[in-house]
Specification:
Layout lengths: L5 E2 L2 E2 L14 E3 L1 H7 L13 E3 L7 E5 L5 E3 L17 E3 L4 E2 H11 L4 H10 L5 H4 L7 H16 L1
Antiparallel strand pairs: 1-2, 3-4, 4-5, 5-6, 7-8
Length: 156
Amino acid sequence: MTVEAVTNGRDEAETQCCGTCKGQSRPVSRKTVLLMVKPHLLEQAMTGTYSFCAARECPVVYFEEQGSHSFTIDDLRVRVGVKESADPIPSCYCFGFDESHLRDEISATGEATIPARISSLIREGLCACESRNPSGMCCLGEVNKTANRLRDSSQS
């Protein structure tokens, strides 16, 4: 198992269920949580093992495994793209792309070059997803998924 495959001593395959929506989640580092929560909540996030809830309808973003703390979209300093339905919907936290950038490019050209540009920057080692993306994961998967969805809907 690689170092990247472990978060807080847990295998990435381990999932916890969100106490609010009962949906599955994924481990996220405490560093990511601390970088995302508003300053007055830092003390609450100093200890514990956290998971990220990606369910769109659930207001919880992070929850502590023992159930003692959870943080909602209102507790974070940034918008969480997978939980948003109104622009701006963040897609790439490292380089500042949001869904409207993808939509505009696809509308103008029929294609999305943004994922390839992001991929190139990642290869250069210039991303900081663990620090900038609330999920603690690389943004490129969500960017590609969003680009494909927008491309498919523009062709309908």
